[in-house]
Amino acid sequence: MRRLLIAIPYLWLLALFLVPFLIVLKISLSDVVLAIPPYAPTLDLSEGWAGIKAFFAALDFENYWFLTSDDLYWKAYLSSLQIALISTAITLLVGYPIAYGMARAPQEWQATLLLLVILPFWTSFLIRVYSWMGILSTEGILNQVLLFIGIIDEPLTLLNTNTAVYIGIVYTYLPFMILPIYAALEKMDDSLLEAAEDLGCSRIGAFWLVTVPLSRSGIVAGCFLVFIPAIGEFVIPSLLGGSRTLMIGKVLWEEFFNNRDWPVASAVAIILLLILIIPIILFQRNQQKQREVEG
Amino acid sequence: MAQPMAQTVFAPWDDPDETPLIRFENVTKRFGDFTAIDDLSLDIYAREFFALLGPSGCGKTTMMRMLAGFETPTSGTIRLAGQDIAPVPPNKRAVNMMFQSYALFPHLSVWDNIAFGLRREGMDKDALNDRVEEMLRLTRLGKFAKRKPHQISGGQRQRVALARSLAKAPKLLLLDEPLGALDAKLREDTQFELMDIQEKTGTTFVIVTHDQEEAMTVASRVAVMDEGRLVQVATPDRIYETPETVYVADFIGDVNIIEGTAAPDGDQTHVIWAEGHDPIIGSTDRAFERGQQVFYAIRPEKVAISANRPEDAVNAVKGKILDIAYLGNLSTYHVELPTGHIIKAQTANTRRIARRAYTWEDEVWLSWTGTAGILLES
Q1: Which of A264, B59, B297, B374 places its Cα 20 to 30 Å from the Cα of A281?
Q2: Inter-chain touch A189–B70, beta carbons under 8 Å
């Protein structure tokens, strides 16, 4: 019975992660052809052992070589990394004060504030991104308000720029930053800050020496939760970004649907996964360490 | 054994030339409508081990937080070594506090916790090392220096908190229920350790506690508080033997309180407490008017129990044993008098329990001397 219970999540992972991964890996090693499906070889088991041998013999790393030959790909990876890093940093800068304010708010307010943070999830992600198009466009609400107040004389070009992508990512992933930081700050004992002050810290000193280190696990968790999905983000750059916004998610989409080059698209996805494995492992380590401390 | 050098009793509060280290002058603290501290004046002297004792909500913690700088008085002044400390923020006061929860920094090792305050002073590295090592020795924590707070026991954490608050050599150390989280046995050991450390370092300690036994054990003087006021400030023995009010008598230790009216008779005062019974004879240096309401307070251990009326007893009453509380070394007998009063009498169990002289429902006599109890006004 117990084995069965433990087996369920593993079977789940196997069916929904490992098998698709192997399929993608296999496609990435194939060649593009004009057919359905648009790649070769396909495994033909009717020919028995010879068929399997022929199948494996046809696999090669050609597509990976192709990725290095065109600078579009590594530029897209780098640009994705850069956009993910910068937006993670901005999300942290915006999210930390919000989480801090929530943790410091009166107890009876905290549930409401928490609800407000989660509330955007009740609407479809796509709709929210579309509404940002309405806000950021040249005739959008933001420009109208700024023009009305008189801060600007001419409408700003925000939509279809990297700025819009940053705004979109920060907006979308903000709750993932706020929640773990709030969770870390919320269980912090206030007497620790008094102790720090009592021992000669100023208020600001106590914040840096006590509050920040104690919310470190929340900061790390929040950063990974934002950084990991932001790297592969596709919807936000394609809706809010311009033609100059280069992100690997977008490249992948174009390879797949516009070029119908499934093998190259799969190779792009595999490399992206390899890039992400490092932060995912670091994230797991952080969670593990946190559990040990709380033991 | 050689006689120690001319030892004077430590009692700066009796010396009119001594200036107090801490001076509360008509301090009042209000939180909204609630008055936590009500026009309170108090002197605490250097090197004292001063206990603030009272039930929760009596204002003792507020007093401590005002000393630490986390609260400011609504009116009145608090002076530390003559200086008004109200404008001094907590991080600039020569006062350190040991928190009830210990408030150890969970992300720092024992060593770094102790060094925390010294680092803020910008102490140079060698001096800092020496000081931390000294504190580790003082609190016997050397072995645990590298551990994190969650890797040591409650008693060790308590010692880290003490070491950390002592490291900066404060003029005044505040201890907020320092032993509250320890079990009874450890608490007892730690009380003596605290006294020892206080003596070694010569620091003035102010301890807040609701545990009267703890206050009695460690303190040079005890202040009993109730509803934001000081009820009595005195040495532990005086608090116990000569409480000034029924509240103090009742709060410290076990006591029998008998209500009656006073009838002065020469240097004695009779307490008429029940019709048809002899008055209780007590001596007091306070003057009571005839017919004034008085409370006669007597500790259970000062009441003797016997099968027959002792012939030379000044006060004796007859009653029936209602209950016996067996505490191992002591037994407390609850004796019901015909008037309905219940008097507690305590005796040492010098004989084995099987040979106990009295049992439930036995008729016994309770007796005590003329000076055993005290008379209180309210």
Answers
A1: A264
A2: no
